[in-house]
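Researcher: Here's a chain I'd like modeled. Treat it as a single chain, no partners, no ligands.
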Amino acid sequence: SVIFIHAFKNALLPISTIIGLQFGTLLSGAILTETIFSWPGIGTWIYEGILARDYPVVQGGVVFVAVTFVIVNLLVDISYAWFDPRIRW
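Model: Modeled as a single isolated chain. Structure tokens:
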């Protein structure tokens, strides 16, 4: 219980940072994973748009992935203040 109270509280900032970065990796790896396993999703949609030279679909997919990544990183940054009250905005 001592480790959970003291060590885990200090380790939350790096853990939340890594989770946010891994989410970006997950989104970028979706194209490869969905293409290989023939799963329908955003990755397959972008890949088929690339093959068909459908640039608005590719642009929309890339913007969607980018905005999602920015929102996740914003939530991670906001969570810093919640995890560690010493951090102020």
